[in-house]
Give the backbone structure.
Amino acid sequence: MFVGVGAARVRDLFEQAKQKAPCIIFIDELDAIGKSRAGGRGGIFSNDEREQTLNQLLAEMDGFDTSKGVIIMAATNTPEVLDAALMRAGRFDRQIIVDRPDLEGREAILKIHVGKVTLSPDADLKVIAARTPGMVGADLANIVNEAALLAVRRNGNQVQMRDLEEAIDRVMLGLEKKNRVMTASDKERVAYHETGHALVALSVEHAVPVYRVSIIPRSVGALGHTLQLPTEERYLMTLPELEDQITVMMGGRAAEESVYNGVISTGAGDDLQRASELIRQMVMRFGMSDRLGHLTYGAPHNAQFLRFPFTSEERNYSEKTSEAIDEEVRRISDRLYLRAKTVLTSRRAELERIARELILKETLDRRQIELLLSPLKQIQNVAVVIGAEE
Ligand code: ZN
């Protein structure tokens, strides 16, 4: 194994590889030596040694005879900063993008990591995979590790489903702060807020199913949470699905406003931020506004590969369009907020019932919530809400 940079090291590396053929040369964090030589992030301070290393690497690769049985592989998280010469044909011929794993991928990765622990038969890795969208291999390894620690802490000899669930909560939401004192009135408000999300999610057609509602505060800000569990991996979202999702986000604030006669709180800040971002994207990225048409607005500029692509934008529209965008975002948000409120008004009795139960039990799962719903009411209300919308 070779660590660090230096032209001599590269020469030596290739020399040894040729002697040991067939073999694979693997260069991890290729960007450390392969950064673009043309200015780039190094600025005016050029790094001579790094440059020499890169030149040597390029030279070695040029005179490379694949029939000798040596394969070169390299990995990087930032392919956009690599020197153009490295990417030229004849150097690295294939580029493989390792994306974040999908549902099936996560399940497969979990299977590998649980091999190291004693797993209880009740552990359902499919559910764990469904609860961890966006996580990569290292995150999933961490979940299994946390779960094992939790199992040991409760003197168990197997990792059970509840350990895995608690491990996800710890990683995603932070530790439970059972000793954080919430005043009774705060607790009540959080209960109504979370019930609002859950009830709207149960009422709209395309919402991701509610998995659990909780008002136990966690260390990462949230005073409570409503957990929705997708049943399948989605790559596309239709307009009605997006609207339903945003309506669910509005459910917390709408519940507070209805229950406390218009007295609202800071509790909805995070929901509103997510909703605003999504609506703005609907208007500016997805062409989902009649008024602004099937166009995109704003050119993403120097969009960094593998990072969230819309971080900075170049404005390519007029002042007037900018105003129209703001108005459209506002109009859609008002409409969906009203929609959430209409749902909750029509299901007020259930809102009360679930919130009361939540204050007592602090956490309710889907089955417990369903027992508190009025029979037959759910289907009728969907019709009412959609009717009011059109
Ligand atoms: Zn909320």
Notes: The chain has a mean pLDDT of 84. The chain has three domains: 5-87, 103-173, 184-380.
